[in-house]
Amino acid sequence: MDMTYHDYDVPQDLQFKTADIIRLGGLECSAKLSPAYFEDVFQLPNKITQVAVSLSFSVANKEILVRGTISGEREVQCARCLTMSKQLFAEEFLETYSTKTEIIDIMYLVRQTLALTEDIRFLCKPECKGLCPMCGQNLNEAACGCKPENLSPFAKLKGKFK
After folding, report:
1. How many CB atoms sit inside 10 A of residue 23's CB?
2. Does position 50 have pLDDT exceeding 90, yes or no?
3. What rounded mean pLDDT belongs to the chain?
């Protein structure tokens, strides 16, 4: 884990001691995290290749406000042509914790925020032509010459019921 910090050693698991944050009167830090921490966040073959987090802790009377930014890069598969593409992401989060809690688990917040950034259906480009349903040719790369058939799943039932 490659880290930068201000008078504080950023824990690798991103679990901060509330007492340390209160003692420091707040905290600002950032860290580059290993993609291995997030292998199970996205459905395969999608995966995170780089991730960094910037954090700002503010202490109030009975609460600690955490502002965070997660940024990085992921590889995602196009829903139409199945090619893998790199995609940058950046997401912010905001959370409050009681000063009575012993540990503030930021890794949980990071994983939760990353999970919410996954697209339901990613396209490599809006005009992606996809794959030929007959031969499987990527139609973005070349035309295949297949004759289109009726692609309706109910076509074989036509005329069976009268």
Report:
1. 10
2. yes
3. 86
Asked whether 48 and 72 are in contact (CB, 8 A), the reply is: yes
Assess whether pLDDT exceeds 70 at residue 159. yes
Element (H, E) at 110: helix 106-117
pTM score, whole prediction: 0.73
Burial of residue 62 (number of CB atoms within 10 Å: 0-12, 13-18, 19+): exposed
Residue 125 near residue 90 (C-beta atoms within 8 A): no
Find all residues with CB under 8 Å of 101, minimum gap 6, and list them: 18
Helix, strand and coil content of the chain, in percent to the nearest 5, comes to 15, 40, 45
Q: 84 near 65, Cβ under 8 Å?
A: no
